[in-house]
Amino acid sequence: xxxxxYPALSPIRTGLACKCPxxxxxxxxxGFLTVRETCDHCGLxxxxxxxxxxxxxxxxxxxxxVVVPLALWVEMTYMPPLWLHAVLWFPTIMGVTLALLRxxxxxxxxxxxxxxxxxxxx
Length: 122
What we know:
Layout (H helix, E strand, L loop, with lengths): L10 H6 L37 H25 L3 H34 L7
């Protein structure tokens, strides 16, 4: 355990930036969604912090709230064939999902660090 002082950082800022929730300097992920074992700047043990399925659930709700009304509006206004809906909405859903998954997982890990401390936290 180190006696260094780490200021209280915003879990929203550090999480959405995919940075270490304690120091804000180290990278949070070693892969696309793999949380690092430890922070390369401050040495925080990150392996105990896991977001589980939380980010995916939030993305499902966000996309359901946005895409379903848009798809219904497009259907009622233009009445395109079903293949056009697939061509239009599949890339949209995949793009938004891939764009949001990593920052939302970082946010969940940062919020978990802030509100549910483990024994590794100072």
